[in-house]
Amino acid sequence: MQSFFVLLFLVIGIMIIVWGGNIFINAASALAKATGIPKMLIGATIVSLATVLPELMISSLAVMQGSTDFSFGNNIGSIICNTGLIMSIALALTPQKSGKGFTSKALFMTFSLLILLFLARDRAIEYKDVFILFLLLFIFILFSIREAKYSPEPPCENIDMPIKKCFFHFLIGAVCIAIGAQLLVKNGVTLATILGIPERIIGLSIVAVGSSFPELVTTITAFYKKEFHIGIGNILGANILNILLLPAVCGTIAKGQLYLGLQKLSFFNSAIPTTLYIDIPFALLLTLLMVVPPLAKKKFFRWQGFVCLGLYLLYNIFIFATIK
Predict the structure, then answer these.
(1) Which of 303, 276, 292, 218 is CA-nearest to residue 44?
(2) H-helix or E-strand containing 113?
(3) 222-260 burial code (b ≥16 CB/10 A, e <16)
(4) Environment class of 290 (CB within 10 Å of its CB; exposed 0-12, middle 13-18, buried 19+)
(5) Of 43, 72, 211, 244, which one is least surrounded by beta carbons within 10 A?
(6) Over 60: is that where the pLDDT of 289 sits?
(7) Coil/strand/helix, residue 323
(8) Distance between alpha carbon 200 and the CA centroid of its chain, in Å?
(9) Dihedrals φ, ψ of 143, to 5°?
(10) Residues 263, 264, 270, CA angle at the centre, nearest 5°?
(11) pLDDT category, 156, cuts 50, 70, 90?
């Protein structure tokens, strides 16, 4: 009976997220048309900030409860899920041109991930690391504001809804996404705990997919509504926030003592920092596979989606197969 209600709330959570994501994308598209702000920028800032809220809340609560591995697993797992699952599916279905604003954000995302890997080399996010991450986030925000100011698109006279209504719909969509994600994640974790899955694996897989569900819904909805650049911008912005904002906030909550744990794998005799040696490098590999071809050719390719999706599936098989 307990399992029945857990599955029921999972389905309800998905339905709420889908409904909220549809409202959210409609508002984002209308806002871009009414203001002339590039759709890539709308997706990389407003949309991505709202869809990353579940990850921020989950990771922060995990740190407060002393589960730093769970927190890091959720952060990195969300990046892997966003790139290897969500963006892969979108590109496999409808590859497009990279669009205005992609190059700068793709390079910044890749650079930020390299910085995170460098900062985590001692298996800890301390106050000095928190400062660097917040500084990079501040630079990203300033750059986004400057891009909106100097690279506007012509406002459209036939707007879908007034700007005030856009923000109201943003609020409704964000609330629905947050509530649905909480239902999804909470009940997903309950099922995982019953099965005895380790904390890091829960964060990397089930919780990462659950907390990334808003990005999945908003991206797929954006592609379905032919708002490709909002969808891509959402993934780029969500990844940048996962790389910079979440570890910085969690490091602050942990008072500069956010440590990466050691895990034993089935083929190693001693425990290793798997987040540092496996998870972050894999996230970097997926990122490079997604951003390098469009940086060189100015467009995405269908093979990118299939290759990264295949790697994502192999990665999940690997992390479950090496549980010890």
Answers:
(1) 218
(2) helix 102-119
(3) bbeeebbbbbbbbbbbbbbbbbbbbbbbbbbbbeeebbb
(4) buried
(5) 244
(6) yes
(7) strand
(8) 17
(9) -65, -40
(10) 110
(11) very low
Which of 39-43, 103-107, 260-264 is most confident?
103-107
Residue with token string 């005030």: 164
Domains of the chain: residue spans and CATH: 2-321 (1.20.1420.30)
Q: Which residues contact 12 (CB under 8 A, 6 or more apart)?
A: 180, 183
Q: How far apart are CA 214 and CA 200, in angstroms?
A: 21
Q: Which residue has the tokens 């298996």?
A: 123
Q: pLDDT (tens digit, 9 = 90+) per residue, 243-279?
A: 999 999 999 998 888 888 777 776 667 777 888 888 9
The structure's pTM equals: 0.78
The answer to whether the CB of 246 falls within 8 A of the CB of 93 is no
Rounded Cα distance, 91 and 219, in Å? 11
How far apart, in whole angstroms, are the C-alpha atoms of residue 169 and residue 234?
A: 17
Tally of CB atoms within 10 A around 277: 13
| CA-based R_g, the chain, Å | 19
Q: Kindly give, in sequence order, each residue whose CB lies less than 8 Å from that of residue 9, ignoring residues fewer than 6 positions away.
A: 183, 186, 187
Identity of residue 86: I
With vertex at residue 47, the alpha carbon angle to CA 207 and CA 238, rounded to the nearest 5 degrees, is: 45
Residue the block writes with tokens 């083929």: 267
3-class SS at 37? coil
